Amino acid sequence: MAKPSTLLLLLLSIFIAGAATRAAAPASTKFIRDKCGATQYAALCVQSLSPYASKIKQSQRELAQTALNVSLASAQSAEAFVRKLRGVKGLGRREAEALQDCVDEMGDTVYQLSRSCHELQRAAGAPYEEFRWRISNVQTWLSAALTDDNTCTDGFSGRASNDNVKSSIGARMVNVVHCTSNALSLINQYASNH
C-alpha cells in the first residue's frame, strides 16, 4: 500500500498536469484564432483547426501542416462524393461528362495536396535555401489545386438539367476551395516568419 505522502504527491502531480493542459488549450485556441484572422475564410479556419489545438499548441509549422491535412481530407471526401454521383441514374450526357471531368480534377487536387503535405514536412528543419524551395513548391501545388477545384465547378456552370447534382457538388467544392485557400494563407504566414 502506498504511503499517504506518496499518494498525496501522485494526486498533486495529476492535478498540476491537468491544470497545465487546461491552461494550454485556451492559449492554443487563441493562437489559432489570431493566425486564422489573416485568412480569407477565418471562421472556417478556426472551426476546422480548433479541434487540433492540443497538437498545434503555438507552432506555426504545425498549424500550417494541420491546415494542409484538413484541406486534403476535405478534398478526398469531395472526390469520393463525386465518384459516387457518377452512378446516379438519369444523368444527361453533359452532366456525365462534367462529372468525369470533375473526378479527374479532384484526383489532381488530392495529388497536389498530398504532395504538399509531404513537402511541407520535408521543409521543417531544412537549410534556408532548401526551405524556401520546398515552400515555393507547396505554394505552387496549392495554387494548382485551387485551379483544379474551380475547373471542376466550371463544368456545371450555365444551364444544367440536374440542379441537385450542381448544388451538391458546388457545396462540397466551396468547402475544399476555402480550406485550401486558408491552408495557403497559413503556409505563407509560416514562410514569412521563418
UniProtKB/TrEMBL annotation:
Domain Pectinesterase inhibitor residues, every copy: 27-186
Broad class of the protein's primary localization: secreted
SUPFAM superfamilies: Plant invertase/pectin methylesterase inhibitor
CDD domains: PMEI-like_3 (cd15798)
TM ranges: none
Gene3D superfamilies in the cross-refs: Invertase/pectin methylesterase inhibitor family protein (1.20.140.40)
One Gene Ontology term, aspect cellular component: apoplast
Single annotated GO MF: enzyme inhibitor activity
Top-level taxonomic group: Eukaryota
Pfam family, one: PMEI
Signal sequence, renumbered to the chain: 1-21
Localization (cell): Secreted, Extracellular space, Apoplast
Keywords for this protein: Apoplast, Disulfide bond, Secreted, Signal
Family: Belongs to the PMEI family.
Database matches in PANTHER family: PECTINESTERASE INHIBITOR 7, PECTINESTERASE INHIBITOR-LIKE
Name of the protein this chain belongs to: Pectinesterase inhibitor domain-containing protein
Organism name: Nepenthes gracilis (Slender pitcher plant)
